[in-house]
Amino acid sequence: MAIWNLLWLYILILYVNNGRMEASHKVYPQFQSLSAVNIRQLHHTAFHFQPPKNWINDPNGPMYYNGIYHIFYQYNPKGAVWGNIVWGHSVSKDLISWKELEPAICPSKHFDIDGAWSGSTTILPSNKPIILYTGVDYNGIQTQNYAVPANLSDPYLRKWIKPGNNPLIDPENGVNATAFRDPSTAWWLNGRWRVLVGSERNSRGIAYLYRSRDFIHWTKAKHPFHSAPNTGMWECPDFYPVSLSSKEGLDPSYMGKHVKHVLKVSLDDARYDYYTLGTYLTNEDKYVPDNASVDGWAGLRYDYGNFYASKTFFDPAKRRRILWGWVNESDFTRDDVKKGWAGIQAIPRIVWLDTNQRQLKQWPVEELNTLRGENVKMSHLKLEKGHHIEIQGITAAQADIDVTFYIPSLDKAEEFNPSWEDAQRLCANKGSKVEGGVGPFGLLTLASKNLEEYTAVFFRVFKTSKKHVVLLCSDARSSSLEDGIYKPSFAGFVDVDFADKKLSLRSLIDHSVVESFGGGGKTCITSRVYPTLAVLDNAHLYAFNNGDETIIVKNLNAWSMNKAKMT
User: Fold this and answer.
1) Would the pTM count as exceeding 0.90?
2) What is the residue-averaged pLDDT of the chain?
3) With 0-12 CB in 10 A as exposed, 13-18 as middle and 19+ as buried, what is 115?
4) How far is CA 405 from CA 508, 554, 558, in A?
5) Could you say which of 58, 112, 336, 400 is catalytic?
6) Are 545 and 382 in contact (CB under 8 A)?
7) What is the C-alpha to C-alpha distance for residues 119 and 142, in angstroms, rounded to an integer?
8) Can 537 be counted among the known catalytic residues?
9) pLDDT at 401 over 60
10) Which residue, 495, 517, 514, 522, is CA-closest to 506?
């Protein structure tokens, strides 16, 4: 066996040096290989990435390589719940239409026989991609392994090889061997590659740092790259630079004076993604969040809804950083299995630093606009208290809506109680039916004709002695007449300047998912819903206002969306 390890070591040296949640680990043994029926077409998405059946979760190591976008993802080819996990693999030229390929990685070796879990891709010198991923052995021990393309001349990189010198990184003494996973994209600094691995010890979330000169021999840093108490397991760590002055994305190895760094972790206990902005102390190989950037449950989130185990990558073709996220099923039950509901991936988004330098902003990739069809425009419409206006002329179950609201006066805004720190709880207490001063106003998406069902996406404005506070809600509590399914209200605060008294909202509606972007992408919320009446041609879309202050729909653009190609 030693001679084969040496041979693989030699092969990887040549490869590298030429030219230089898992997301949900709850196991349902009785369902793992239960064949899933095709998803009910009423709820199957048209332009989100989704297989025809079976379970998917984390987007693993998306990348751009030789003109092709690749997305890898955790996939169960045998059933509709988590289990039998392989690395699904699909390719695209535009991030919207996708071709499914055979799995890139399947459990087959002693180090990954019980699971080929999440990881990342890195483009090595001489334009050579490599996958780092977590393997789980029979004893549940998690190690970091690698795979390389079998044939670099294949434009789709269909086949991947696991060299015999795996695993590359074993959990050392002091490392929780059953909570040691999801290696990040590597970056290059001062003659060494660096990679993060998520972990947890005594409820402290940890991102361990490993260094290597050759991508083969890895050494653990003496101190964690970053950690925080009472945050639990840190899954899917992601670390990257953002420009202080431009929306352009940066290569992960870019270091300069005019950047901040982002550290994102997926909190296994919370099932949400949180990020901080901060400084990378390169001399110490440590990350320090800004004073205003909080670790853990009170911190910033990419998305305040069903969104988890996300991953970004740098797109060198268009100089942008692209974010993928899993629209997770937070309450995946036996009933869901019977219906064959599969997970989906959120629309890929560009991500950049807001000009206030306190948070990130996100927006759907421009390629999505190519699916736009019939267009309806509305402007200067008054929404009096209690009014709702139907937006007709588009397919309301499959649409893209971009609207700007104007608020003539903020005098009627309700007083904000400082104890209302939890946006989600505030939205639950003050939903779309609860009348207010300024708001609630926004959209009733996936609505039935008589409003027995709808998912409300709306703003509510409060005031303090110093400023106004804006709440964005995506409330699914009225989304379905079906009992026993998860119908939460999601919410986040929107940090906006009210000098022009305007609020913008864009919502992507796709049968069973509503992705919303408030304040130009400052606050994003994704809701997964399962209406029974508001489906297909029976779905409606309304603009509404239940606040005392009259709201003006200054501009509204709505498009029917065509179906993306998934082959």
Assistant:
1) yes
2) 91
3) buried
4) 17, 6, 14
5) 58
6) no
7) 12
8) no
9) yes
10) 517
